[in-house]
Amino acid sequence: DVKVTQSSRYLVKRTGEKVFLECVQDMDHENMFWYRQDPGLGLRLIYFSYDVKMKEKGDIPEGYSVSREKKERFSLILESASTNQTSMYLCASSLAGAPNQPQHFGDGTRLSIL
Amino acid sequence: AQKITQTQPGMFVQEKEAVTLDCTYDTSDPSYGLFWYKQPSSGEMIFLIYQGSYDQQNATEGRYSLNFQKARKSANLVISASQLGDSAMYFCAMRAKNTGNQFYFGTGTSLTVIP
After folding, report:
1. Contacts of B93 in chain A (CB under 8 A)
2. For A38-66, how does the pLDDT look when each residue is reduced to its tens digit (9 = 90+)?
3. Which residues of chain A have pLDDT under 70?
4. What burial letters (b/e) apply to A41-65, b meaning 16+ CB within 10 Å?
5. Looking at the partner chain, which of A45, A100, A104 has a beta carbon nearest the beta carbon of B33?
6. Cβ-based contacts under 8 A for chains A and B
7. Phi, psi for residue A75 in degrees, rounded to 5
8. Residue pLDDT, tens place only, B101-114
9. B100: distance to nearest CA of chain A, Å?
10. Cα Dmax for chain B
11. What whole-number distance in Å separates Cα of residue B69 and Cα of residue B115?
């Protein structure tokens, strides 16, 4: 089974802090994604990556950056955390070139910015 | 542009009854896949079922089936014999060939199963 592991289930940080959310997958997937989830808004794509050192902006990249130095690891960085970034963050991975394959998700990180 | 619409923010169903969760989609790509996910209150997203645009038959996985009506661009999830553990958020998603790597999600439907 595919395993996507997010470093924290719950995280509390203060405004202005630099926050790192880590995600690791163990199935050699090319594609990795970061979403944020807010009630009534569904999943919104922040960034995705289809290869090492490659990244693409999603729908809401402002205030975030990402890093993918190794194929299995995709990090989301909040450069200077703000209260409006309090949310649930979900990491996912998928195979490239396989439209019948689903995304596989981590358990999510509930981030609170105080 | 790809778009997924789920018009039911919340649904209730009696235990052991069947329930249908609606999903419509919009794409100009003839090759696409449709996915349903379940998200319990604990937060993890669980993949349930897949339907390909060229599949001739509706997909089924245990108590889950997909009512795929291609001409109407709908892909409704049917859960038969509802159980209390089915209470969760359900998301419909699409992946189209011409946008390769991206998935597009609806806003979700919250299902509550009543004993």
Report:
1. 103
2. 988 889 999 999 999 899 999 999 999 99
3. 1-2
4. ebbebbbbbbeeeebeebeeeeebe
5. A100
6. 58
7. -110, 140
8. 789 999 999 999 99
9. 7
10. 44
11. 31
Nearest residue to B47 via CA among B110, B111, B105, B8? B105
Task: Match 């997924």 to its residue by tokens.
Answer: B4
What's the length of chain A? Answer: 114
Q: In the predicted model, what is the mean pLDDT of chain B?
A: 94
Which residues of chain A does B107 touch, with a Cβ-Cβ cutoff of 8 Å?
Answer: 40-42
Interface test with A, best of B45, B89, B109, B110 (most A CBs within 10 A): B45
What is the torsional sign of CA B28, B33, B39, B43? negative
Whether residue B1 is predicted with pLDDT greater than 80 in this model: the reply is: no
| Residues in B touching A94 (Cβ below 8 Å) | 101, 103
The residue among B52 and A2 whose pLDDT is bigger is B52
The two structure tokens encoding residue A33: 């994604």
